[in-house]
User: What shape does this take?
Amino acid sequence: MENGMYPFINLPLSFEYNALEPFIDQKTMYLHHERHLQAYIDNLNKALEKCPKLQSLTLKQLVCGCRKPLSEAETAVKNNAGGVYNHRFFFGGLSPEKSEPSGELLKAVERQFGSFNSFKEEFKKEAMSVFGSGYAWLVKDGKCLKIIKTANQDSLVAVSVKPILTVDVWEHAYYLKHYNLRADYINDWFNVVNWNQAENNFNTL
Ligand code: MN3
Assistant: This one.
């Protein structure tokens, strides 16, 4: 991932804001990337101004918040770094090009969940059950695939699992188009998942 260190900038998406229509609308994509992610980036940079010692750490190291207990400024760094990391991961997992899992990832999905369709059902159920704001993730844990949930901008970086794919289920990710219907949003999101990126994540260490 480029721009992994302070000062952070908002990297452009690899597609236009309207490219995921009709599944995710242009206004949602614009606000999500240009306002929400930008705010995490600005707040991360501001928090890092107060913590010069952390300025040489990578985004992943900042997300870990490894030094405990954290001061107020360090907590702001950790939370906002989580917001940047999670959003970059989420946006990187989207594509206007229709794709499906293939190769080793498809084999692993079938081994773990029985079929791609059963995986989708299971993933949707988990994403629906995220209470409040957070994310559902497909992760690799050793040789197994698992679906896990995180709250707010907590991250998986400090956990020993490898993220493959995530869906942002904060209301800002879907409210303008899908209102309160998170299930409809998740169904639509499945149409714009970048399975090629997911497969790269699965195959790289
Ligand atoms: Mn979001």
In short: The pocket of manganese (III) ion is lined by residues 32, 36, 87, 168, 170, 172-173 (CB under 6 Å). The first strand starts at residue 134 and ends at 141. The longest helix spans residues 26-49.
